[in-house]
Design a protein that fits this description.
Blueprint: H1 2-35, E1 40-41, E2 51-64, H2 67-79, H3 84-107, E3 112-124, E4 133-147
Helix pairs in contact: 1-2, 1-3
Length: about 150
Amino acid sequence: MWQLLVFLTLLALGYGVGKSLERKHFLSILQRERDLSHIVAFSAKRVPDTFSNTFLVKGSVVVSSDYFKQFLSAWRLFFGGRLKSYETLLERARREAVLRMKAEAQAGNANAIFNVKLETSVISDQNSGGGAIGTVEILAYGTAGVLTQ
C-alpha cells in the first residue's frame, strides 16, 4: 500500500513541478521572442542582393520531459493516440533553439537570418522497454547577415 502512495506522490509532484517549470519557461520564451522580434528569420534559400556581412548562426537545446509526461505517454503508447504531453515539449524546444540562434545573430549585429533549418533528434532511454521519449534535442541554424532596404 505504501508503494502505491509513494507512486501517487511522485506522480503528483512530477505534475506540479513539471507544470510550473514549463509555464516559467514559456513565459521566458515569450519575453525573449518580443525582445528579438526585430531579427527576421526566413526559410527561403535565395537571399536578396541587399544581404551582406553573412555568417553562420546556430541555436541548440536539449529538453527533457518530466515524470508525469513520461507516465502519460506510456499510457498513450499502450492505448494509442496523440502524445499531447510531448507536443508542448517539442514546441518549447523548437522555439528555444530559434531564440538561441537569433541571439547569436544579434551578437553579430545581424538583422535577418536566411535559409533557416531545424534538425530534431530524440534521445530515448533504451532500457525503459517502452521506447518512451526521454529527451529531445533541436538544432536551428541559418545564414545571418544585414538586410538593407
